[in-house]
Design goal:
Layout lengths: L2 H13 L4 E6 L2 H20 L12 E2 L6 E4 L1 H12 L10 H6 L7 E3 L5 E3 L1 H5 L1 H28 L4 E6 H5 L15 H4 L4 E6 L6 E10 L3 H16 L1 E3 L7 E7 L7 E7 L28 E3 L8 E3 L1 E3 L4 H19 L4 H4 L8 H5 L26 E5 L2 E12 L2 E10 H8 L3 H10 L15 E4 L4 E7 L3
Parallel strand pairs: 1-11, 8-10, 9-14
Antiparallel strand pairs: 1-3, 2-11, 4-5, 6-7, 7-8, 10-11, 12-13, 15-16, 16-17, 17-19, 18-19
Helix pairs in contact: 2-9, 3-6, 3-10, 13-14
Amino acid sequence: MNEDETKSIAEILNELGTTSRIQVRSSPGLASEVDKAAADEDKKREEDGRGPLRRRTDYRDVRNAPRSLPLTPWQVLHAIGLGAAAARQGAGRGLAEHWGSLRYSQALEANRGQFLQLSSEGRDLLRFYKATQSGEIGTGFASLLAEHIVRSRYPDHSVSVIPADIALKAGWTLRSSGTGPRPEPLTRRPHFFVEAWRPGQPSKIFLTSSKGTHSSVHQVYKQLSTASAHVESVHIGPYATVPYFLIGTEIPAKESLALHVLEAPGTTLLRPSGEEPGADLDLALRQEEFIPDVVLPTEGDRATVPGFQVLPGSFDWFSIVLARTEAAALTAFTGGGKPTAQYLTREQGRRHFHQGTGTGAKTDTDTSTSTSTSTARMWDAEHRIHDIDFVGTDHIYRLNRTRVEAFSGLKRSLFTHLYRGHVNEYRREVHSLRGQWPQRSTAEGWNTVSIRADGTVLAIRLRDE
C-alpha cells in the first residue's frame, strides 16, 4: 500500500461527510404528468384484460416543498442501513442488509455546483446492479425527504420512519399461501409509515411509497403512477383518508440527482376511542390475523375490497406495532439479536433474531456477547463520539484494498432502555434530546460521522494495517 493509495481512500471517506444538495421538484405539472402516465398504463391494462389499477388519485404538489435538501452521502447510507436492519430478505437478511449499504460508499459525490450525482464508481455499478442500486438509493433519499417534510410541519414532534412490510406482518400474512395469485392490492404496498409523535399523545401517520430510476424523467412519471397504487392498498381509519407521499428519485448517469414528490395532504391521528388512555408501548406486541379487506364508504350493504385497513378499534394496537417495530430496527442496527427479538412477532421474524444474543459483523476478531441480564456485554463495540457514549457493532472490510472500519450504534442510555424493553422510556428520553444532537460530520478519530435524531450513529475511519 503506497502513500497515494492511502490518501485517495482518506479523501473518499472524508467526501462521504461533505454536505451537498439534492434537488426537490414538486408542482401541479408533475401531478398532471403522473395523471397522464396512470391513464396510459390503465389503457394498456384494459387492452390485455387486466383492468385498471386501484389508485389514490387525490395527490397534488407538496405545499411549501423545499427546493433542495442538504445531505451528505453518509447520511443517505445511514438511512439505507437503518431501514434494512430489521429486514427479512432470504438467507442474507437482517444485519447483512444493513451492512449492504456500504456497497455505495463510493457511489455518490458532489458536482461543481455542489449538487449530488453518481460518481464514476456509481456509474460503473450500473452494468450489474442498476435496478438494485436505484431502488436502494431511492429508498434512502425518500425516507430522508419524507422525514424532513413531516418534521418541518411538526417541529414539536419526533418523527420515525418505519418499514411498512415489517409493521404489516404483525397483523396480516403478506406471503402467498400457494393457492393461486393474490389480488394485486395485496402485493403492492407502501414502503414506509412516517410517524410524528409526542410521548403520551396520539401519533400522526403518513404513508410513503418510494421509487428510483436511472432512466429519464418520463420513467419517474410512470413510477409515481404505480406508487399511487401502492399507497392505495393501506388505509388507516376510513377508506382513502390517510395522507401520503409519492417520492421518485431520478438518478441520471451524468447529471445531478433529483427527488420528485407529490402528496395527499391531511391528518390521521391514532387516537384511541372513548376515554381510553394511550397505548402502553412496553406491552409485548400481539400477533393478529386480520382479514385483508378494506371497507368501502358505501350506503346499504357492507362492501369490501382487498387491502389492509386499521380501524379505530385497533389504533392502540397499531401504535404499539409502530413503536416496537422501530425499536427492533434500532436494536438490530446495533447488532443485537435477543434485544431485537423481544420487539417482533413470529411473522415479523422474531425467531431469526432469537437465534443469538448478538450478530457482531466483524470480519477480523469478533467479541462474544454475554447472556446475562446485564447490558454490559450486549454489544461488541463501543465508542465515544462527540462526547456521547455509543454502543453497537462494527464491520472491518477493505475499500480499494485498504482496511476501513465502520461502526453502527445507539446512544448507550437509549440502548439500555430498549434492551430492558422500556420503549416508553426510550421515547421520552429521545424526544427530550430533540434538536440537541451534534450536526458535525467529522469527529476525533473518525473520518465521517452521521448521528440521527433517533440516537443512532454511523461512523467510518481508516484502520492501520
